[in-house]
Structures are given as C-alpha cells and as structure tokens.
Amino acid sequence: MQQRDAKYTPQALLFALSSIFGWAYYGEVCALYLSNKNFKAVIAYRIVYVIMVFVGAVGSLDLIWSISETMNGLMAIPNLICLLAMSGVVAKEMERYQEIIKAEKAAKKNK
C-alpha cells in the first residue's frame, strides 16, 4: 500500500464501524416494532446480525455482493405490494391536495 492510500484507512475504518453500529441499532428498533416489543426477537436479530457481520468479514467478495443484492431485491417486494395496495389512497390524497392548492391560488388572486 502506498503512503497516499494509507491516509484514507482511518476514515474507511470509521465509516465501516459507524455503518455496522448504525444498522445494528436500526435493525433492533425495527425488530422491536415488528414483534410488538418482544425482546426475544431482538436477541434473535442480534444473533443473525453478528453471524452476518462475521460472514461479511471473512466471506468472498462475490458471495457478499450476491447476498447484498439478493436482500436489496427482496426488500422491494413488500414495498411494491404496499404501493399497489395504497395506490387508491394516494390518488385520493393527491386530488384533495391539488384542490387545496387551487383554492389557495384563487384566494391569492382575489386579494
């Protein structure tokens, strides 16, 4: 490693550690919410999280990217289902909001 590349090592290390801690906390909060504040779910999440951090540290780069891309793809499924389920509600709210904007513009013109 060249000297100019070594100066970025502390920043990369701090970014990696802050990401690990941040996602761990975020996941715990989500596990608590999804399990209706069942702390056994948090323990299970922590175990899976630590295992995945270990796999990420020692696994091959191709395996890690494959797992990462698969999980990101799977996250789209519930989002798309909710998007379809709420499309009517969103359309109604958008129409209501547009009416409010038109009324405000009309009120400004009348002043």
Q: Which helices and strands, and how do they pair?
A:
Blueprint: H1 3-6, H2 9-34, H3 39-58, H4 61-85, H5 87-110
Helix pairs in contact: 2-3
Tell me about this structure.
- This protein is mainly alpha-helical.
- It folds into 2 domains: 1-58, no CATH class; 61-111.
- Helices cover 89% and strands 0% of the residues.
- It has 5 helices and no strands.
- α2 packs antiparallel against α3.
- The chain is elongated, with a radius of gyration of 23 Å.
- The termini are far apart.
- The mean pLDDT is 91.
Brief descriptors of the model:
single chain, 2 domains, mainly alpha, 0% strand
By DSSP, the count of extended strands is: 0
Tertiary shape: elongated
Percentage of residues assigned to helices:
over 70%
Biggest sheet, in brief? none
Give the oligomer, counting copies of the same chain as homo and different chains as hetero.
single chain
Q: Element order, helices and strands?
A: HHHHH
The number of helical elements comes to: 5
